Amino acid sequence: MTGSVGVVTPQLIPFETPLDLERGGRLPRYDLMVETYGTLNTQKSNAVLVCHALSGDHHAAGYHGSEDTKPGWWDSYIGPGKAIDTDLFFVVSLNNLGGCSGSTGPLSMNPETGKAYGPDFPEVTVLDWIHSQARLADYFGIEQFAAIAGGSLGGMQALQWSITYPSRVKSAAIIAAAPRLTAQNIAFNEVARQAIMRDPNFFEGNYADHEVIPASGLGLARMVGHITYLSDVSMGKKFGRRLPRDDRDAEGVNFAVEQYLRYQGEQFSGRFDANTYILMTRALDYFDPTNTESMPLPNVLKSTKCQFLVLSFTTDWRFSPSRSEEIVDALIQAGKPVSYSRLESTHGHDAFLIPDATYERIFKAFMDRVYRDLGGDE
Amino acid sequence: MIAHSHQIPSWITTHSRVLDLGCGDGKLLAQLVKSHHIDALGLELDPVKIATCLDQGLSVIQQDLNRGLSNFNDQQFDTVIMTQTLQAIRRPDLALSEMLRVGREAIVTFPNFAYISNRIQLGLAGHMPVNPQLPNPWYNTPNIHLSTFRDFEELCQRLSIRILDRDTSNLSGKRTWLGTVWPNLFGEVAVYRLTKES
Fold this sequence. Notes:
The structure holds 2 protein chains of 2 kinds. By secondary structure, chain A is an alpha/beta fold. Chain A contains 10 helices and 12 strands. Chain A has 2 domains: 11-180 and 287-374, Alpha/Beta hydrolase fold, catalytic domain (Rossmann fold); 185-282, Orthogonal Bundle (Rna Polymerase Sigma Factor, Chain: A). Chain A has helices spanning 126-140, 153-164, 183-197, 215-229, 232-238, 256-271, 274-286, 297-301, 321-333, 357-374, and strands at 11-15, 19-20, 26-27, 30-37, 47-51, 78-79, 84-85, 90-94, 147-151, 171-175, 307-313, 338-343. Chain B has one domain: Vaccinia Virus protein VP39 (Rossmann fold, 3-Layer(aba) Sandwich), CATH 3.40.50.150. A 7-stranded mixed β-sheet of chain B has the order 3-2-1-4-5-7-6, sandwiched between helices. Chain B is globular and about 45 Å long. The A-B interface holds A 307, 325, 328-329, 332-333, 335, 337-344, 358, 361-362, 365-366, 368-369, 372-373 and B 41, 47-48, 50-55, 57-63, 71-73, 76.
């Protein structure tokens, strides 16, 4: 039987030591918005770090109140009896630096100016996130994570962790990810950024000064992104060539899929910050674990010490199975322990978020082994 | 389900690196991890079997053997095992060469098509054999490249593969005296240990 972690309360954790950033900036101090599920054991060995994707946040599981109907983004895989079993593990989930869900980001106050950072928020990278997450581990007294798991950009963080802090990761679950972006991937991100920047309400990122948001551009960015998260099959199943629904605004809309995308765009522009979106897509574009070491991926992976699980989904074209297999093959070349499955799904890139029996079975089998390997704990 | 030959474990060195091609539910690898503390890796196509392998603590990769082993380094393994799969892949000759490129030794088992009951069904009844060894009818069998002890050894010679050991077993993985004396006639399962001719 699987269940829910129930009602959860995020906590804001302050870090007063300055953080020097990879691309030259510096944060004098920062806060991280964090949720935890389950209980940290006395040896502090059962911690699992969950990393979010492009537009995700710290709210990975459970609900934010008894009225809340929408659970956290990875609720299908985190909870009692689920793949990341909160009866066994202590799960840490955070909003990354530069985010807009409570952690220090463009919406936060710049201590030097006394007003929000806005577009002046320094550029952050996956590596910067890893360093800030390591400090979060220190805060909880976690010397080594039993596992670090994530999908998409979250999977890239798990991969970077295994390279940057090899002795602090026992296992990594890298799902629907890629070792770096292709030109096509970057191109889609650039279209999204241009949509935002060309919105007359963008004001070079200083929209807050004008008390507006570039809602149209951000909505358009989300529409483009959303298409890349779905598959032709899933869109065909969900919308086909059907006409718009009557119960929603259908002005100027010819097909149901158009209405859906507009709705998604509007919802997103109401909850997400445009500067954060630009910053997160840049972090994704620049991600390349071979860059800092300037050697091929198998050589970079030689230093890793953890067990790997890599998962991909057949209809994912944003990060297709062959991109995951690049990671798998590099790990094989490096002689590292890796398991891999290319899971059948019609859901495209979004499949990593969606409940599926085989995905659950494999992910859980891996995580249960991670727990068994902790040995002698509870 | 055809049992693994009792012979295989005796050909494995303790703490060696072993790759099992088509490892199924991981039974053989798990047994070898226990008995020989091997560094094990399995390749398997079926995600459900992959999960069963993970349950047993094995590392396993979903990979189609017909795609080859190009993602593995030369001599990355001490032993590469392929049990009851050679006859089901598109190019058994290429597979054998690849196995001995990535591994120092190879262990191969396959159904002997010259086994007496197959000869009777084909030779006397005039039907493609259907029996516990080859359970599928000809039109939907995965076994597309059936061969005999004799055929296999000719192929090894052509590929400059040296036969280190040859054994035979019945479907329960046990050796029979008839099979030992006349393997091509009475051996149900052919079991070989191979290496590349130096």
